[in-house]
Structure formats: C-alpha cells, structure tokens
Design a protein that fits this description.
Blueprint lengths: L2 H25 L4 H19 L9 H8 L3 H9 L8 H18 L22 H9 L4 H10 L3 E3 L5 E3 L12 H21 L21 H27 L32
Antiparallel strand pairs: 1-2
Amino acid sequence: MTESKLHQLLSAAVVRLLKPLVRLLIRNGMSFGTFSDLAKRVFVDIADKDFAIDGKKQTVSRVSVITGLSRKEVSRVQSLPAVADDTTQQEQYNRAARIISGWVNDEKYQDPQGEPAQLSIEGDENSFASLVKKYSGDVPVRALLDELLRVGAVIKQENNMLLLKERAYVPRAGDLENVAILGVDVAGLLTTIDNNLQPDQRQALFQRKVYYDNLPEEALAELRDMTRKHGQALLEKLNKWMMQQDRDTSANSSGTGRMAAGVGVYLFHERLNEEKE
C-alpha cells in the first residue's frame, strides 16, 4: 500500500471516529480551542515519550518534526498545565463493578441454586459488609450500598435484606461515570486496533463485529435483548475466570509482571437516510 493511499484511508477513518466524539463534545460545551490544545498536548507527549531515539534525549526540534507543529508551538503546549487524571469516577465504577461481580461469582455469596443470595447489610461473614471488604477493600459500606441502590442494581426489601437486581453495574444516563468510561473503553478499542495494524504483528488481539445496514427498526428491540442476554453471559464467564487470575481477588494466583486486560461487548445502531433498493 502506498503512503498516500494509507493517509487517505487513515483520514477517512479519523473523520468517521471524530464525528460521534465531536457531537459529544459540543453537546457538553467543549470548544474547539480546548479540544485543539488537548490534541496538540497528546501529539507532543506521544512524540516525546514513544518516538524517542534510543540513547538520545528527545529535543523540541525533533518533536516539532514528528508532529508537524512549530518549535514555538511545541514549547507552548509543553508549558500548558497538565490535565488532571481524575480517577475518582472510574474508581467508583470499578469498585461497584467488583462488588456485583463478587456477589454473582463467589460461592460464599450464592444461594443453594448458585444464584446471588440475599444478603444482610451487616453481621455475619456472608453479609454485604463482608462482600465490600473482600472485593473493594477499606471503603465505606454505606457509600457503596447507596450507589447500588441509586442505580437500581440492588433492592432493599422490607426485612432489610438486600436483593441483587442487576448482574452488572451500569451508571444511569448523565452520570459522571459514563464520561470516565468514554476515556477508558474507547481508548481500549483504539489500542487493540493499533496493535492489529502493526506490520510486524505476530499476535493479533481479538477484534470482531457483526453488522447489517438494512434492518427494520422493529428488529432493534429484540437485538437489544439478545445482546444483553448473551453478552452478559459471556462477560460473566470471562469475569469468573479473570477473578481467579487477578492477584487482588485470588490469593492463589501467581506469575510474573503486572498486566491489565479486558474484554468489551457493545451494541451500536444508527438511522440511515437513504433507503436501500
């Protein structure tokens, strides 16, 4: 493939992926100027850290050549205040997700039929408080319970026992956790695609989808139900295996290094303007 053809395809792909992102940014009040500075900052940081020559200190001049920005602009961007990586919302999401995962998969918190058991808030070793301690560490039990009650994942019954209503933690529309998920989940997908595009790639990561462009609108409700049912079942199976490997949740796990890994399932649809003949 020629370099010009590659750039043509890459440009088309960038425009396509930017459309939903820009729509989201405008809807939430981010100006082009802010986005431009963020994009320049990432260009400069990646060029500085990931494209340095071994044994040589990266210079402003070389970063300028790599990014296409002037040396003055590189220096200006490098002087901008760093964007705070506020992990509070993402950490809240992770803690809530781990709680539900433990409730679903840990036999200690299951009933005789293997389903998530009803739990008392405090008390014995099978309580919600013990679940929080095991899977989220030293965090306030009440805060996590209030969050799970708020999103409808847990129901408090008249006898004060807790019933797990949803087998996954899904923030409500408009919750700040969804913004944190944007950065993590989309970045994960793009990292996978980047990995699979490497010319010397010997071990491609799994990346598949099914797509049809002439479905009736009435089919979407059933597709959503099927995705929720089968996607959730797959994720629960993978989650149970990963919990057994993760050192934070399994004392028996061993091995070298520290790796982060995840598998995502998502549904997308859009309305097409042109009718297909």
